[in-house]
Write a structure and sequence with these properties.
With 156 residues, this protein is an alpha+beta fold. 29% of the residues lie in helices and 13% in strands. The chain is built from six helices and five strands, in the order H-E-E-E-H-H-H-H-E-E-H. The strands form two sheets. It has a three-stranded antiparallel sheet, with no helix packed on it. The protein is globular and about 55 Å long. The model has no long low-confidence stretch (mean pLDDT 84).
Amino acid sequence: PLLPRDTAQNCCSCITVHQKANQVVVGTKRAFAFDLVYETDACQSAVYDGCVSQLLDGCMQGYNATVLAYGQTGSGKTHTMGTGQSVGEGSEEEGIVPKVIRNSFRHIEVHKENIDFKVSCCYLEIYNEDIRDLLQPGGRQDGQVIAIREDAAGGI
């Protein structure tokens, strides 16, 4: 979506979303295909249901999952992940992270008599090639940078 300053300057969007084809077209000629695409006015619950709820189901069966929000500054990553605002539970604006946390612990509560659960989570920020776990003390401001190294065989 356009930023308020763009709207104030009478700018218009240069992208077209084709949901059935899962494509975003920039201008009139450059089309990019994705697994899923959403209109700029899509609600948070539609994004969660389409992208994340099945991953959470897999986690509850023992699989690992990763949700990656990628894009330039101001593109909506924090909004979509739901970590930059405080909204009520079940709100249309509630993002991915609060929904995953709530639904995870609901599942655990329902099945705790029959299954032993071990839950771990990291919330990483990759910025200018620095990686930080935002759940660790200090997080974004003065948190320890996570080093990634390559071994002699090229493995990470």
